[in-house]
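Look over both lines:
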Amino acid sequence: MGTASKSYQYNLGTYHRKVTTANAEAQVWFDRGLIWSYAFHHEESARCFEKAIAEDPGCAMSYWGLAFALGPNYNKPWDLFDEKELKKTLETIEHALTEAKDHAPDSTELEQALVDAVQARVPKGLQEHDFKACNEAYAKAMESVYERFSDDLDVTALFADSVMNLSAWDLWDLKTGKPTPGSRSLEVKGFLEKALEQDNVYEHPGILHLYIHLMEMSSTPEVALVAADHLRNLVPDAGHLVHMPSHLDILVGDYRRAIASNADACLADEKYHNEHGGDNFYSFYRMHDYHSLIYAAMFAGQSKVALEAVSRMERSLPASLLSIESPPMADWLENFSSVRVHVLVRFGRWQELLSLPFPNDKDLYCVTIAMIHYGKGVAYAAMGDVEKALRERAALKEAVKRIPSSRICGDFPNKSNVVLKVGEAMLDGEIAYRQGDYDVAFRHLEEAIKRDDALTYAEPWPVRILSDLSHSRDIDH
């Protein structure tokens, strides 16, 4: 093994897929690229595939991997690429696809099939219908590959990924527990569970990762807990994979384990951040892992853990990162600057809320400013100063109007201005409650619940629980 491979400091476990290359270094870099792609760290995945290409320019699968890593994924479909980013990305992908096709004749039959399939993943134009068409074409192409090589775990994972991306974050109807109309969730469940019966499947990060994403929205998320437990320590330095089991831990109420997994994930993320910095899209996943740690700690009543994680997150979220225009980092990340407000509200730290300063840059920190108004409004109401709470309520409504529709909430894929409408109704309920108008208060909280229920599945604050708590306080009163 060469010097470059020996110096690579990330522990990615032992997963290996043999590809057609006589160069041992190229094989090592290919394996790393594939694992990182399963871990949704697409930039590091692409970097590894480029290293593999440098070691063996004739390896078709390394070009395939580069094209795959740079394309759309479950959390970032084509329509969320900004124009500049999309143009540059498509140029790189098209070159990789050409090289993959040129070198495919020297590859195995399965590798040739994968190279052929990924050609369909590039849109013919730059409109939404073009994106939809290429996603469908790629899923159809991968279905053909799966029909020929259904016992191959990588083929199964890639096929599952292609189909799930047709209905990303919309796989199940949360009210009925049934698949959403037009989704192929039961089909994916069937072939992933068939794969889970194979030997060595618990060593495959892609299968385990996708099965968690598939089942977390279902009415039976607990069935994926075994897969989650195998994934927990499988790829120690891939923060997102270390974090993923916590999606299920939260749903089944295992907050202790959710805290532990997210704490480990944050350490892995910080290891990568210390070497490469934060000027990359993986910063979104890094913030999500911090957010999930904070979220679990809030549910567990651990204010110290939550506040320490908030401070770590804030330190790694400088204005310079938010100011990057392509991709538009503020749209993806600025909302995380507002998380401290949620923690202080959760633990009733009213004076700290009232002391929170507003950022100077009202455009860059538009979500944070709105959230601070929300938090101060709750604090004033809780302390009995309804007049000041009403002023904050008015300021909140004006602040929400300033938030562009492109700003994503931490509860991806929801938009911040939509999520804050839940906060508006909650604050209205809190104020009415403090005014002694309980019927009006509960109507506002019920409205907050309706707005919350209308959000796309994510990991949101439980408005129903807050409503129940308010009813309990009324009974006590």
